[in-house]
Write a structure and sequence with these properties.
Layout lengths: L2 E5 L3 E4 L7 H11 L2 E4 L10 H13 L8 E7 L6 H9 L3 E6 L19 H9 L4 E3 L13 H16 L5 E3 L5 H8 L5 E5 L1 H5 L2 H5 L16 H11 L6 E3 L8 H4 L15 H11 L6 H13 L7 E5 L9 E3 L2 E3 L11 E2 L7
Helix pairs in contact: 3-4, 6-9
The structure holds (4S)-2,6-dioxohexahydropyrimidine-4-carboxylic acid (DOR) and zinc ion.
Length: 350
């Protein structure tokens, strides 16, 4: 049987939510990933180190028995973020980055940043302390077409930040366009990007043709196939600027199926590494999965690579159509459909 053994991978961008959603989300990420960068867009957002540490404790309480999964915490930047929040974050071994959401760009971003330039003193401190800046890279002007928002963000916001702070480590999160892919490839080693499994596997026609599929609606929105192809090329190129970040983002079924405005976010944590394996195999580049999933992100964040491994085998399986999600249910990507690769159990060790 065909098997695939990798250094244990990490997820450099995930939404775990809080409260009674944590048993599902933490259980799923801890199946295969050793660590994950945990997004801070809770309600209210995680804006200070004490809040991040309390959230971390809540996550740890929900780890499956025997798991040594490690949540890597982040702070949510606002127009009110203080220099001392940054210094405290830089000094905390548990906090690994700060996340910039332009206000109104996506789920729970209402408290996000109104004036990016107003945060320049914060970026300066982050550069000094080598604290990475994680960016949701979309402009928020309602007049700008939703399919152009990432591309325009590069020129309007990202280029000025990089020009002003070349020493700042930046992750352009969940990139979705060929413009973002070629931009990141052309920058110094301080600028990297995460790529989701769903943006490697799907393009906008998959979401819109034959009936709108809320399960594939996320932000930044899926783009046309030429962009998907560019993302596949970048992810499978062996360029260490591109690494795994699922952006797995669960919403209760009622919010995903809301005809008056479906919530943005695809849930992939139940099968993430398996879905990436499928995308890399389709590209004929399975050999490049380990660098992307297990090496480059750790190197960028200055963390050790794992010393244990996981193994996948080519045994098709079908995830459930719905998963328990607190008192709600959650519709995972590919629920009820076949996935080729399966994680070999036991899942917590090599
Ligand atoms: O689709 C998305 N969902 N994109 C984001 O940026 C946020 C995320 C969420 O928190 O649901
Ligand atoms: Zn996200």
């Amino acid at each position: 049987m065909q098997t695939l053994t990798l250094t244990r991978p990490d997820d450099w961008h995930i939404h775990l939510r809080d409260g009674d959603y944590l048993p599902t989300t933490v259980g799923d990420v801890a199946r295969s990933f050793g660590r994950a960068i945990v997004m801070p867009n809770l309600t209210p957002p995680v804006t200070t180190v004490p809040q991040a540490l309390a959230y971390r404790d809540e996550i740890l309480l929900n780890r499956p028995t025997g798991s040594d999964f490690e949540p890597l915490m982040t702070l949510y930047l606002t127009d009110q973020t203080r220099l001392r929040d940054i210094i405290e974050a830089a000094q905390s071994p548990q906090v690994h980055a700060c996340k910039l959401y332009p206000a109104g760009a996506t789920t729970n971003s209402e408290a996000g940043v109104g004036s990016i330039e107003g945060l320049y003193p914060i970026f300066e401190a982050m550069a000094q302390h080598q604290l990475p800046l994680l960016i949701h890279g979309e402009v928020t002007d309602a007049k700008i077409d939703i399919f152009d928002r990432e591309k325009i963000f590069i020129d309007q916001c990202l280029m000025p930040i990089i020009a002003r702070f070349p020493e700042l480590k930046i992750v352009f999160e969940h990139i979705t366009t060929q413009e973002a892919a070629s931009f990141v490839a052309a920058q110094s080693a301080n600028v990297a990007a995460t790529i989701t499994a769903h943006h490697l596997l799907y393009h906008r026609t998959d979401m819109l043709s034959g009936g709108m599929k809320p399960i594939l609606f996320c932000l930044p929105i899926l783009k046309r196939d030429i962009h998907q192809a560019a993302l596949i090329r970048s992810a499978t190129s062996g360029d260490p600027s591109f690494f795994l970040g699922t952006d797995s983002a669960p919403h209760p079924r009622s919010r995903k199926e809301d005809a008056c405005g479906c919530a943005a976010g695809c849930y992939t944590a139940h099968a993430a590494i398996e879905l990436y394996a499928e995308a890399f195999e389709q590209a004929g580049k399975l050999d490049y999965l380990e660098g992307f999933a297990s090496h480059f992100g750790a190197d960028f964040y200055g963390l050790p690579r794992h010393s244990d491994t996981i193994t996948l085998e080519a045994v098709p399986w079908v995830p459930p159509i719905a998963l328990p999600f607190g008192r709600d249910e959650l519709m995972p990507l590919r629920g009820g459909e076949t996935i080729k690769w399966r994680l070999v159990r036991p899942e917590t060790g090599s």
